[in-house]
User: Fold these one by one.
Assistant:
Number 1:
Amino acid sequence: MDLTPLWRDAHAHLRPLTDILPLPAGEPPAHCSLCGADQAVAVVANVRFGSEHWRSGMHLHYCRSCQGYSLPPQAGLPADAPPTAVDARLWSATPTFLNLEPTTRCNYSCWYCVGRHMVQADIAVDDFVRLLDNFPSVRAIALVGEGEPLLHKGFFDMARTARERGVRVLTISNGSAFNATNVRKICEAGITYISVSIDSNDPATFAASRIGGKLAKVLSGIQSLAQYRDGNGYRYPRIGLKGSLFAGTEKQIPAIVELARAHGVDIFESFQPLNPMRTYVPIYPKDKLSELPQIDRIAASIAHDSDPARHGMKTVQQFCAEEGIRLDKNGQPNGIRRNCDEEWIYTLLSGDVTPCCQIKTPLDPAWNLFRAPLEAILKDQHYENVRFNLWNGLFPAYCTGCWKTR
């Protein structure tokens, strides 16, 4: 059944990309019922039959040979009502959560951090205000990126501005800047949640991973923040724990959790192995590349030890649910293959929106929250086509290494 005219009337700009990563094993090209070529790929759309009856999540075929869209023969189709409309805009399009990179500067030189290889700069506070104006539906902001947020001289101005608009503020820190002044400002600014990265319970191993860092200083800073918060009647911030683990440290989660809790950490967030994304791998030292083949094993170890940690501490998911913060960002599956339906908006310090926090290069100058309302970006045809492909699990090359593509 040829749906090409209906598709083009609805959204001619939505089309599977020609250059995508291989589809999952066991999914060969489909047979096109329009031209007979074995060049079709399955996509998902809602189809209307007759004047009002919509069928959700139908599997259609797009043929790379004839560039047509067809509905394969299948049982249960209405015999007396032909297709009259199609809608393939099925990805999440009502975001309320923003992940914004406030700075790429850091006082650590962690060997696995791509931020040390990016332009070192801060977002301007005036640009931050314009961004808030252009994203009126935002309800929570994670001031998180490839740098240490507390090094930004305008960090607390941005946090207060967001809070004055009723926006919850979350952030991540390496914990090195929890001096008396910053501890007071963190509490006064009303920052809801701050997580601290700890890669090892051993000071020497910690210093080798988080180059420039001192574990004792981080732990002392966490303790100071928790004591000041509690001693002065502040409810926030709650303090979370996360980190990166490698060969030799993947078994340290229980010890790290015990140490962090003893110094005032409230929340268990997550641990992760080395990032295998194409964006990151080129910056890794040659003597660290042997970590890459071990990622799956380390990830399994992290999953094993994280489960009891989640039972022993409140998780970040539980905390955000209690606070009414919509933390889950995974959206809806498509019913065909693993997909990407990110519900957050990710913004570089340049204001450029990218599909996820792993993409460090702007894809389109029109996707800039300093210059354009979010609504206009969401309706941009290029943006829509990227989201259409990601939602259908048709991943472009820059997604190489993401767990969703492996």
Number 2:
Amino acid sequence: MDFNVKIGDSDKLSSACVVVGISAPRRLSPAAERLDKASRGQLREMLKHHDIDTGCGKTTLIHSPKGRIQADRILVVGCGKDRTLSPQSFARINAAAARALQDSGATEALSYLTELDVEDRDLRWKAQQLIVSSRDAVYRFDELKSDAKPPKRPLRRLAVGLSDGDSADEVRQGIASGKAIANGVDLARTLGNRPGNLCTPSDLAEQARALKKEHPSLKVQVLEEKDMQKLGMGALLSVSRGSRQPAKLIVMQYNGSSSENPVVLVGKGVTFDSGGISIKPGAAMDEMKFDMCGAASVFGTLSAVAELGLPINLVGIVPATENLPDGDASKPGDVVTSMSGQTIEILNTDAEGRLILCDALTYADKFDPDVVVDIATLTGACVVALGHHATGLLSNDQDLADELLTAGQVSGDRAWQLPLWDEYDELLATNFADMANIGGRGAGTITAACFLGRFTKDYRWAHLDIAGVAWWSGAPKKGATGRPVPLLMQFLIDRCEER
């Protein structure tokens, strides 16, 4: 889908469909007011007879509008009762508009939804969010369907309408960042949606090489198991022992600044997680292909940063493996030695994500990072604590945590901070090694982060547990979400702008 800016009043620009917002009970946006006047009161007449639903995200398509309107159709999107929209409501409105346009058969449209008032958000943000929400709403994963049937007349062009050109540059900036973020989200969703027999550690390595061809500014290095053995990554390699697929440590580097220490993103890349010897229940085990969504978000973020050419140094590290039961697989009670030299008693082989992340976090120190953020579908406990709305956030540095929390609020891809106290860390004690890989039934998200915290003492670090937000379960929405690419991109954009 292409995006651009059109300057002119909503009633005077030609289009297959013009999109405007109306709030309850009968508050017309400026663009809707102009359409109403040009149509001799058609919109207010329809509101009077309850032919327009003003509920937030409800849509009404008006064919062949009356009067002097140049557009073939009008799409009215309900904005609810609030005079000032929340960022979440604004995203819902734009997504609803995109779905309705896709269903209408209009191949191009003109949206004036950026003129809606959103709390503490400027026009650039609204243009960016319009793009991200619209692309998210029309995303399809059908590359594996033999009879895939795309829309006969898909929406191909969406213009942001402005009554005057004074703010056109601001909107164009929002469109550029929105397109890059949307492309990154799409990449993360597609990687997450691919099945485990196609998206293997080796396939992820090839994806990294393909990303380098698309963005020559990236440097890519893939470490093989023999390389990891030389580095002493006994924790990571203990997970891959049960799989015929060799583990990979994928390193992607983007250098957009000549002097700054890099931000390092570490993404959990378990391309299928059976639980290993501590095998999971069979129900919904197919969804364990999504256990690499942390890695997918690193790919998506690197791609978006390279597309935008952000003035920042960024490193993406993806430890990639499968976790399967086998005669050589790790057993409960095994003790392994991590790259840091610390020993780990594996009490549960289904707590494998932290085992691959701890070696990757130790490896991250070689880049002399400014900050390190890991992203992982790490614990079911996070789903219990926060449901499917917020990412769990834990950090050893409050300033870094605040940056990520703010980025989540601004992007609408929100996170919630949990404590990282010493009392929780004590739950990892064991008689047989430096630590156990689980801390008991309670506070599972926190003790998992405490485990990772033992490998991040030398730098500022934050952990994002995305187990509740990385994918949707059940029809019709089942599939990867691409989160937290919007949060990570806002975090990086904010860092660039604060300098």
Number 3:
Amino acid sequence: MKRIFAAVLLCASIPSFAFAHHGVASLGIAGLQGPGAPIETSTSATLPRGGFLLYGKLDYAQFEKFNPEVDDESDYNAFWMYSLGYGVRSWFSLYAFVPFSTKTVENNSYNTSGFADMSVMGVFGFKYDERFMLVPENESLDDLEDWHFTAYGGFSLPTGNADITDSSGNIDPGMSLGFGQPSYQGGLTATKLFAERLTGVVEASYIAFTENEYADGNELKFGSESRLNGALVGRLFIDEPTKFRLDACLETGLLRLDRDELNGEGERATGGDMLYVTPGIRIFLKGASVAAGVKFPVWTDLNEEDEQQGAEGKEKYCALVSFSILL
């Protein structure tokens, strides 16, 4: 039964536009039966032993503008994530990620595009069935109704260019393709099939960044990120002959960003709290999965909020599309 579902790891820590916009790890599963998978929130799934997962995702963020004229305000960011996963054991999976990011401003005076920091992550899976245990090699459909959990952790490698300059030779770390130093991420998930067609998911995660000295002599440490996500996924339609399944999901995500630290001091107009809501759908076809959704900020409490154009919490919307296939 283990082969009836595939794990999908949506994105790891990737750099974005000024004042930080970093992805998170997310797991999903694919199968005609069993739990459903959100678009961003991580579910408690591991890859089958010896199984490979190919994955791609696009995260497109369109920002609100403060000024009506065309100037150097943030316009949009597009993040592609390419990933390869491998099931080392039924209870342990490894993933490698290669992100590609594009960041633009309205007047195109400081656009950047290229491969960002690579990252790796390990995922441990366990479940509760009268006692806690590691995820076994094979699970029946009844077993999939048990509480499932994961603990994951990983780090990024400073492979992206952290010192990209504008036409005047200035460096904006938010426009860089890398952090210049490793970043570290960890999290916990819990997943439960509460009814035949309804899955609940909860995830808590944390990302910490390392201070980097840039080519202009400035030292910057991006603020750490704390996230609490929740999701409900409903199975809408199944067609057994074609192995087709359609799910709808609704997610919420609470994000707290600490202030960035520039040369040892808290940087103005960075950090704050925000709440996102993401409605979306996921389609399963045999061993493949396609998901799409739109994420909106519905509440924000940002530091110096009227100065944070182009920051997380200031998006008009984020369009999310992902694809995965289990080999």
Number 4:
Amino acid sequence: MRWLLWLMLLPWVAGAESLAIPPGAGETSDCLECHAKEQDEFQQSRMALAAHSADFINEWSSKGRPGRCLDCHAPSGGEGVVCVDCHGNLGHPYRKLSTPVVCARCHDAPGEITVRSFFNSPASRRGEDCLDCHQQGEGFSHDFIGPTRADFLLGVARLHLSLRREGGGDTLLVRIHHRAGHSLPGGTTGRSVWLQVETFGEGEQPLTRRLFRFGWYHDPIAGWRDETLAAGPGKVIEIPLESSVRSRSIRAKLIYRFRPGTLDKPDPQAVLLDHAVFALPAALGDSR
């Protein structure tokens, strides 16, 4: 029933405090006199430049620069999010915000299900919230960290390879498990997680390569479809091994991308989440 409570609270928190903000209101300098530490921390976050990053500008431009994107990336008309976009413009003292409700205004916007998927995650059932992972430092830090920070994704996902042998042929089982508090990847439609599976023969000769993409997928007819990796249960990919290919080993990689496009398209920020190697039994290779 928590999702119902969230839906009931969202208009009150997001609408009353965040949506009716005139352009240019709440510039960060307004809060600097009393909250210099929080200001400095927030300026280091991606949220402060949400409408100014190269990744956003490129993706936004490729879609015709729709104004609705700025409702979350620059609600007050600046380079990104400012204090009142979350805390409201009703004046001091500002009421305490509730996470993840306040986060849902943008992180459940079209093309995102981050908060919705959180409510179905093991993290939510343990009583955690967004700040347990996306906050650092002592006390309430405004330096909201995410996957663009070095080492933030370290250990977040794991690969396990195994083989199922049956009369009809051999099948590689690739198990993907992650510990993020929401679907992976979080964020917008431009991000993705790729599974690359390669087979090698004698002398490390490359034989086959298979790619699987997880994230948002756009169908020309049906529109956007969610194909992210759900939190909790994990996912198993079954890959039949061709009997005519004399494979000796298999290598798998799980890669997090920030930029749209295929895995072969350069992305200097891409992160290797995990990799695994599986040596096929000699008898299996000889039987082919």
